[in-house]
Design brief:
The complex is a heterodimer of chains A (185) and B (148).
Chain A: H1 2-20, H2 24-44, H3 48-70, H4 83-104, H5 116-129, H6 134-142, H7 144-164
Helix pairs in contact in A: 1-2, 2-3, 5-6, 6-7
Chain B: H1 10-32, H2 41-59, H3 61-67, H4 70-94, H5 116-147
Helix pairs in contact in B: 1-2, 2-3, 2-5, 4-5
Classes of the chains: A mainly alpha (185), B mainly alpha (148).
């Protein structure tokens, strides 16, 4: 468990760096470090499916962040932090930690789930679905409704992006729009 | 823009020419063995999308869009979604939603586990084409913005 705690501390430091640093590109690199640490943490906790997915999604989002956004609007992050805001944030963090301590005390210890359904999946998953990858058998057979919902969410998100960023039917550079003022980019 | 070639330098292009096929093949492996080993439709689809993005970053947008243009990727995404839903609905005919209507086969075989490999392939189409379309849309918007 030592390597896991080392990874967690590394991720927390990287997240603080990502929030506090002034340069936007360095901030994105720090976010990528958090994602890489999370991927290795999944690997240590013996969840290779999650590790693969986390790694590839992290790479993709990093490329999109760097390539598609950072060259467009480089917003310099500067501004004074006010004392009152810091105090309120600290109060909320303290309250969250207090109630989280109360709530997380009753969780079952690591590796001992209280739900019986997971044991049923482990015992009968291979027999009922024929898939040797039990994660695959859960997400595509026992819990396929969830996967359908996720697929619908992704479909809607992609359609939304393609509609907002479309080229056909967009207003030209010098063209005027009849109704309200449209955002020009 | 006419005078210089689009894309990155010669070293990047040569390495890309060597590796992009391997990345695509690895994505297909992850998808088709999703019911046997770690991985599955989502991760494999993202790897396939990343291989096309790799091509686009190295060679510029013309070559990548010649291989998979935006309307084609939208078509693939819709095809994946409809395929996934169709598999679910065919099961509904035989009893309930997402019924595993194909025979299970022997474990550890490539053709086993009924509908799970088919669902993996459908999700791979959906995720890969969808994420590539999002990337292309964001990048083209950036180019438009620079011009205007």
């Amino acid at each position: 468990m030592f390597e896991l705690y080392a990874l967690l501390i590394f991720m927390i430091i990287a997240a603080i760096v990502a929030v506090e640093i002034k340069d936007l590109l360095s901030s994105i690199v720090a976010v990528g470090a958090v994602g890489l640490g999370l991927s290795v943490a999944f690997l240590i906790l013996k969840a290779p499916d999650l590790a693969i997915t986390q790694l590839v999604v992290e790479i993709l989002s990093l490329i999109i962040l760097i390539r598609a956004t950072i060259k467009r609007d480089i917003t310099p992050v500067n501004g004074q932090k006010e004392l009152l805001n810091a105090i309120i944030v600290l109060l909320f963090i303290g309250g969250f930690l207090f109630f989280a301590y109360l709530a997380l005390k009753d969780l079952p210890s690591f590796g001992h789930p209280i739900m019986r359904v997971s044991k049923t999946y482990l015992v009968e998953g291979l027999k009922k679905t024929g898939a040797t990858n039990l994660v695959g058998s859960v997400i595509l057979d026992f819990r396929a409704y969830d996967t359908l919902g996720e697929a619908t969410i992704l479909f809607t998100a992609v359609i939304g992006v393609l509609v907002v960023l479309r080229r056909v039917g967009r207003k030209g550079v010098g063209e005027e729009v009849k109704e309200d003022e449209e955002y020009e980019d | 823009m006419k005078t210089e070639e689009p894309g990155m330098s010669l070293i990047v292009k040569t390495i890309t020419r060597l590796t992009v096929g391997l990345i695509l093949l690895y994505g297909i492996y992850i998808v088709t063995h999703g019911h046997l080993s770690p991985g599955g439709g989502f991760a494999g689809g993202v790897i396939i999308a990343l291989s096309f993005i790799h091509l686009m970053l190295a060679f510029g947008k013309e070559l990548a869009l010649k291989k998979l243009n935006q309307s084609l990727s939208s078509l693939f995404e819709g095809f994946g979604a409809i395929m996934f839903l169709t598999i679910a609905l065919i099961g509904f005919v035989g009893g309930y939603f997402f019924l595993n209507f194909i025979s299970k086969g022997k474990p550890f075989n490539l053709f086993s586990a009924g509908i799970i490999p088919l669902c993996n392939i459908a999700i791979c189409f959906k995720v890969g084409a969808g994420l590539f379309a999002v990337f292309v849309a964001l990048t083209l918007l950036r180019m438009n913005g620079k011009k205007g």
